[in-house]
Request: fold
Amino acid sequence: MSVGCQMEIRDGGAGGAGETLAAMQAAEQRGRARDPEVCRVLDRIAADEAAHAELAWAFVRWAIARGGERLVERAAVARAFDEALAPLRAAREPERDGGDAAAWHDNGRLTDAERARCHLDAVREVIGPCAHALLSAPPAPLRAPSGSAEVAPSASAGVIA
Reply:
């Protein structure tokens, strides 16, 4: 797999993870908010972030297909995802939160502990399964920009051993 392709997958995986976190956090915040304007804004943010996440995951799927089927490439993809997810998996819930949680919730905010739980749930329920599905699926043929012809992933791309 070329260095460029590895970087695309790493950056796309980090983007998919980050956008997924943002979408899930906005949805969680929306679920607690009471102010109608805050609810409206959080609905829009959650939808926008979900669309960004979908695009990022689609990009990673494309980059994996472009990289080919070789086992060493799959291992590189798995390492790229592990690197992107390591900080999230290592996160721990804060031991305490300050302030009035009800006031934070009314205004669409999460406590530090709630945000940490939301992020850990995102890794367990969405990000990890998406990464696993992308790595487990056979590569799909690439389409030419016009959509008229299939393009096989290049076997001549450089491979990092």
User: Anything to note?
Assistant: Residues 3-151 form one domain.
